[in-house]
Amino acid sequence: MEGIRSEQKKLRIVHLVFSFTSGGIENLLVDVMNGWDSGDSLLLCIINDVKNEQLLAKIKLGADRKVICLGRKPKGEKLPYLLKLERVLQRFHPDIIHCHSNDAFLFSLPLRFFHMNAKYVLTIHSTRRYSTFRTLDCLIHRLFLSQIFAISESVQREIEEANPGFRRVRLVYNGLELGKFENRERQFNKKDVNRSKIILCVARLNPPHKGQDILIRALGILADKRQDFLCIFAGSPPANHPEILEYLKQLGEEMGVEDRICFLGDRNDVPELLTGADLFVLPSRYEGFGIALIEAMAAGVPVLASDVDGIREIVGDNEYGCLFQTENEKELAEKIDALLDTDMGEMIERARAHVRDCFSIEKMMWTMKKLYTGE
Q: Between 212-223 and 329-339, two packed helices, what is the crossing angle to 10 degrees?
């Protein structure tokens, strides 16, 4: 399937985000902007002046693909940039305004009254998020949102439980441009016993959510048994918490594995990093979906992840990947040790097929288009 084509009315779609750093949502939007080739017009609008220029450069701009950054400073004034956003929308005449955070939706809400014919859509990208919204937010959603997209069944359940009056929650799994991850040559020969085993963790450095501290503690336990590993962390801390990186480095020293871990920061070459990995680990304390997992599965890397709802939907009951009890660093260490020396060929092939069948970017875009048009 090449993109999304339809003989119906061509849509004008705005994707509204507060920032555009290097993460799963941002990479997903790059794929949507590039893959949505139906003749619809797409505009990516970034509210704050916080953006990854290298990632933005991957978007193929054209007459029907545009990117606009309003340039607002984080926590800066709202009104001037709200007016700027309104001028953008007036010129674009959107049919769909798709917000990728509740903050982006609430920022743009006053403009709803100037665009009554446009459908407002909100995607909830994580668990443990919607249940924290105010009662007023839930009421506003019922009044002004056409639909809420949930990226997993666990996110969908959370929304429906927190806002039972909202009947327009739709499941839209995140998708992946499979060509970026398939048929790549490995950077290392797995039979080269003289090199360290490479463990890869790709996630924002946010331990309360992503659990990098759990993995580092597990590596400390693992190091008592073996030293032939290197764990690579790709991702940076939230902009308002740069101290997290130093905390994780200090934890590595306390666990005696400071020379067995490496922090790369934000990376735009995850497909290349995956070609050198022996094992992908995602130790999240909670997860709405975990797009990094399906990237690893598509690349043919065995995955080991915490047993939480969003992840379990992807890997099944140890069918397409392996699970460990959340926050149990001892079990995590034991499973890393075992998997580094196990032939995972059959599971890898099942995982690849599962990603192709369920989590392609084409399937995601087809579902979005169908929901946008009310089919």
A: 60
Would strands 197-202 and 169-171 be described as parallel, antiparallel, or unpaired?
A: unpaired
Inter-residue contact 280 to 301 (CB < 8 Å): yes
DSSP 194: T
Whole-model pTM?
0.87
Domains of the chain, first to last: 12-175+360-373 (3.40.50.2000), 180-358 (3.40.50.2000)
Structure tokens at 242: 């740069």
- Sheet containing strand 147-150, edge to edge, reads 65-72, 41-48, 12-17, 96-99, 119-124, 147-150, 169-171
Looking only at Cα atoms, what is the longest distance across the chain?
65
Whole-number pLDDT of residue 239: 81
Tell me what pLDDT residue 192 has. 47
Residue whose C-alpha is closest to residue 319's, from 359, 274, 350, 291? 350
Residue whose structure tokens are 């890898």: 348
